[in-house]
Write a sequence for this structure.
């Protein structure tokens, strides 16, 4: 199934093959989801101070360096960068993105399982498929 990984205020180098102005973030992502050649969408936005209208630019990319683990994203202002993912999971929510990447940051203390995989996509799918077991107030809960 198709999902997206989002970066905020970062951009990756890529080959833009289609540019659309004045779409919403959800429309931009929808175009990328439906386009077989789209690997990523760069969505930039600027609020025009003279009129209360947000100007947006959606760039669909058919090549992106975001899939290269050694590629570093560049800082960018007012930008969402969404990498398209193909995951083997039925647990993808109906949210605009399934994962948000924050470069050089780590969430500590929430690593409940160690799963070995061969690809990033397999790791992300395993994360979505993992059942979390918690015990709260003497009751047992399974959390997806």
């Amino acid at each position: 199934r198709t999902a997206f990984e989002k970066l905020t205020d970062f951009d990756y180098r890529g080959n833009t093959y289609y540019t659309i102005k004045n779409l919403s973030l959800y429309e931009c992502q929808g175009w990328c989801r439906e386009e077989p050649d789209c690997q990523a969408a760069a969505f930039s936005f600027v609020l025009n101070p003279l009129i209360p209208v947000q100007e947006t630019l959606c760039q669909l990319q058919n090549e992106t360096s975001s899939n290269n683990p050694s590629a570093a994203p560049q800082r960018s202002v007012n930008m969402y960068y969404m990498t398209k993912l193909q995951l083997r999971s039925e647990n993808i929510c109906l949210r605009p993105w399934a994962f948000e990447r924050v470069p050089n940051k780590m969430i500590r203390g929430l690593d409940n399982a160690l799963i070995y995989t061969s690809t990033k996509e397999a790791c992300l799918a395993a994360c979505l498929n993992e059942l979390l077991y918690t015990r709260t107030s003497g009751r047992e809960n399974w959390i997806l």
